[in-house]
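Supplementary Methods, section 5.1.

A reviewer requested that the exact input to the structure prediction be made available. We therefore reproduce it here, unchanged from the version used in the analyses.
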Amino acid sequence: MARRSPATAGRRRLIPDIGFLFNSYVFLRSVHGSCSLLARQHRPFRPVIDQETFQYLLPLACQWAKTQEEFVLARGVPLRPGQIVDARRVGVQDCSRVKVLVVDRIPLPDNKELAEAARYTQIITAACRGVAIGHAIIIRADSWGDRELLLHQLVHVAQCEQTGGLEHWIQRYLNDRHNCTKFTIGCLEEEARGLAREICAADQLKKLESGSHSRFS
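The structure derived from this sequence is encoded token-by-token as follows.
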């Protein structure tokens, strides 16, 4: 029987050691990944805007909203008959008070800190196409005629009425957004988006069904 050289024997003994090290590396990587995931899942919630700043900006936001509502109610146009039907459909009580103003861009607050907070939290940005403030609705000109967008804003009008007025609504809406991770949309915004989308989808389905029946009748 041929004898192995010391060098060959040494290499043969290293093979199981390399396999052991590789398996250990994979195991430790998986443990590290699991621990990192658990750490992320149990990481305490940190709001985008701290509570002290939020409380400082809240009255400024209420005052700005009040000024904007007064401006739009004085210069906006009332809802059209079809829009009144939509407003009642989403729960607006005082449709005669609702006014709509079409603008080139949605205005930001004059206060620099409030404007920066609005952009930072994505409440009002350059991409914003509409906003409802009390019974005032502001729509960007290139989105005028978008029924789903107007329905969305009308849901906010109804929410404001149900809350008990503009100041209570602003506080409720901003608190709802503030309590979400990364200041995301919140339940009030989800309701507005969902209801507007649902109504438009249901009406579109009715049109398709009506067209189908008419073709086969």
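The radius of gyration is 29 Å. These observations are discussed further in the main text.
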